[in-house]
Amino acid sequence: MSLGIDDLLTRAGHILWRELPEEYRYRDVPPEPDEPGDLQAFLHGMGHLLDLIRGTTEQLHADSFAEAPTGGRQIQSWILPYLAEIVGADLAAPDPAQRVAELNASVRWFKSKGTLASIDEVGDVVVGAETVAREGWRRVLTCPRPGLPPFTLPPEGAADELAPDGRRRVPHAADPGAHATIPLGCPDFRREDRAVRDPSGANPLYRVSQPRRDANGVETAAEAIFWRPAAPGGVPCFPGAYDDGAARCPDLRDPDRVAVPGPHPRRTLIHVRPPDGLFAEGLKVLTLDAAQLEPGPEGLEVDPRAAFALAGTPLPETAPAPDRVVVRLAADVRVAAGRELRLTGILITGQAGANPVRLIAAPGARILAERSAAERVVLEGFGPDGETGLPRPTLEARDSIFGEIAGGTGFARVEYCTVTGETDVTLLQASDCILGALSSNLACTESAEAGTPASCIRFSRAEAVGECAGSPSNTAALPRFASRWICGTVPEFRPARYGEPGYGVLSTLCPAAIRSGAEDEGEMGAHHHQFLAAELEALRLKLLTFLPLGQEIAIFHDPLLALRPPEALA
Q1: What is the pLDDT of residues 537-557, one digit of tens each?
Q2: Is 91 domain-assigned?
């Protein structure tokens, strides 16, 4: 790799050159029109050393603080544990991006230890998504006893009004937020209670943050929305959700075995916004022709910035590019023999209502995918490696999700991937994956005649086929995916389908053999790099030091947190 003239010029060299007298600069004649003179080149040589010293000094200053980065420099991740030890904090967030915020808030959390506000903020920071903490004792029915006010009288300060039968009642039309004159635990069926937007809200306990992306799909600061109960004391529209304030009998069930655990006096409920996974809301959708993704003899590499260029709307060089984009196609993409297609952050979908778009690889072709998605991949065969002569994988994928891998004669090498449908190949090398079903075409033993090795499946979820997937590090447990509210023409509550936010995200009720069965004890599948399951376990461990002794922790996904609270009707 050769360096150009611009690569050899330095910031300090330009400063030194401008400080020289005009006569020296005039006499320093460059040998070529586009090259610096001898004196200017000498100054840029010293400027190179001065720029290194300046960069080291700036980084040293940035490493002394954990605040938001300024000037393009931020603290290095390996220094965070040392700063945390100074303030006595144990960092638990598995996502390196969240550890800085966790360190900055550690002192404030210890000062407010045990309060509901600190518990709610711990959840938001460690998980990196919206959480709502509810104290179980506040939602448990209490029997009347001396020292407690009667439960059948109107709230203090509420206006009295006589009903036709002579009994007192609360004028709900005058005060829609007042409680009904009925015993505690009996909801008022005349009113429906749910979270609605509160334009004048300021209490952080009544705030739900929604992720946002700009027009290009780049993630920006989250949108903070404050809410309030629409009708306290009414019938909850979504029982068990974060906005459910109705009192109940204590729930004696194990919270790790039920989808929506109920309240208990010694239980703290942590409602977590279900993650979006790879298919997040607000991602940029680009429509391309299938021919634009067919590689030439030298191959084709497509990342989000390149996808914008192929769509005819290139991003400026100074503009940030999103981490992933949705590419919508109307026809199948074919990769010819000897060609190579490299996808990074590309989520391929078909046209609405059409059949799934396929990525078809001919024998000898290659598809390399990282943090990408395709609903159907067809591998028509595989060829030998030009250097070793051994079989070369037709599909190599990491941190990706597929609906189906078909063909029956291909060779796939996948790591931290999720295949929700069938995997129909001849050779399969899989590690830390979730595989829905394996075809009987899979070669489980080495074939000397054909010159093919045996398939290898390790630390994965797969059903055994012959001798395949028989490693003790594998599991045959059925994966459970998180359900969400899908707001279409008719709202549905179900696991997300391909292309919808939340596709392939594991539920909190998914067996532990899958949620922590990877080689590094993380979750198997395509969302391992997003730390979705590890963040919930880290939150559980973190809250052990912030909750009173004996308090039980129940952490679960709340689908209602993925929806924005509606506007209150007048």
Answers
A1: 999 999 998 888 888 999 999
A2: no
